[in-house]
Amino acid sequence: MIPHSFLQDLLNRVDVVEVVGRYVQLKKGGANFMGLCPFHNEKSPSFSVSPTKQFYHCFGCGAHGTAINFLMEHTGLTFPEAVNELAQGAGLTVPQEPRAGGEAREGGNWKPTTGLVDLMKTACDFYRQALRGAPQAIDYLKKRGLTGPIAARFGLGYAAGGWQNLEAAFDDYRSDALVEAGLVLVSEKTDEAGVARRYDRFRDRVMFPIRNVRGQVIGFGGRVLDGGEPKYLNSPETPLFSKGSELYGLFEARLAIREKGYVLVVEGYMDVVALAQLGFPNAVATLGTACTPVHVQKLMRQTDMVVFSFDGDKAGRRAARRALDACLPHAADNRTIKFLFLPAEHDPDSFVREFGTDAFADEVEQALPLSQFLLNEIVADKPLDQPEGRAKALFEAKPLLAALPPNAFRTQVVHMLADRLGLPFGEVAALCGIDGAIQRAVHDAPARAARRRVTGNEERALRNLIMYPRSAAAIGEEEQVALGYAGRRELFEEVLLHVRALGESADFRLLSEVLRNTANAPVYEEIFREILTYDENVRDLLLAPETEGSVERYQNQERMAGEELRAALAKLHYEALRERCERLSRQSKLTTEETTEYADLLRQTADLRRRLAPLASRE
Known about the structure:
The protein is an alpha+beta fold. It is built from 27 helices and 16 strands.
């Protein structure tokens, strides 16, 4: 766990204007910098970055946050990755607090790869320059229907047919770093001096630079121009590049994915580039390897809807099945995963060119949902009218259903499977070994009548606590008891845990960053949005509490927030006790214990009512 004190120190050292300025063209506008929002499509700048508040805010779509949050949202980095990125630039080493019951994780001791990044950029520039003087490569790209602007956007290049062309790009062709970066190979043969010979890995190939989410070139894919083998050659595994975790075109597709609301996963480099030109710039591809859970996790950071497009042949079906396996652990109730199978004679590029963009968009819309594809795989080629066929289907279903999270989606899939097999739901669930999880979920869910409504008092209390974290000092033993009656008790407890860890440095800016790294991040985002759009004066005060003239006003607001927090919790406590009183009063007969409880509840509610009366008169 990264210490909260380190996060505060890091945010004090980095400049959000400089961080955002790497990705967005900013212009000075009064006290702030303005630019076009990178999170939604707009023609007039509504994206503001404040050097004083060290915060960005879009008045169009509501995106907001600090430098850490910007890197997470714009580049798709995880919270630790974004912190590491900023820490490296600030010359800091990220410390790690020990986990409960365990040792501290290794933190900040990553292997330096800056030099390799520079080498890859140099090679990329060299290949791009070489393409201009390679008519055979240009003709190939034109035959594939690509234009100059799209080739430039993806940084396409050409590796000539010689053995040591990169010698012209680097001062030291014998540097071990070129081998480590995967650009140069070392032969078993030696020259006259007994030194191992070296040669370029990529020769006579159209070059596709592979970028990470930061836009850095970390590898290459090379496509032969003739019928040579292999058709595609990728960079090897290096400190920069891992095929199982990178996606081609993700850096270029990020904004389009947000705009279109989904990502399209295809099988090849050329499909990605061609589709971007043909109206589908939200396409990405795996790098000559099967889709992995890491790929899916990376995609889910960008969007809640993923559509896999595969050829309809046997190879496409096999690739789809591997993608299905990778997706199962990530099949949350709020996500949509689909599978599109084109006719065997078409890939996405050829399909769009023959039938048009509208036809392909229709295919995407009608793609097979994950649930249907999963069931089809379970029952395929099995005689379901025979016990043997149904038993085999259940046998194959068990590990697949176990891979799904224990949520509403999995329950629905079990219902569908039971219908398909003509068996009772409980029997299918039991045979697949998941009935216990379902029963626990049902048992743990409170009865409808017992579920507490989230009241306006509760919402106000939670909002005040997040706006002014140090108002938590107003929570005493009695207020702590009141929290036990809150419908969002787990949110209060989580916020209080982080507020206490932040200590005196707690403010809205830092707390919001910490809460964005929790499982309840989507819930907190809604609260942040409400807070920052509620009142411009309040927003300015929260984002820059330490600026001249605002310190005293912030402290007054913080004190008032503490009073309102205590009042809201007292009202919450009163409502819960009164509800219990009413339930007891409606019973025809009370036990001795219930009679004692009822009398105690009357005393408590009367006491709370007296304390709340002055507050009610002020409202």
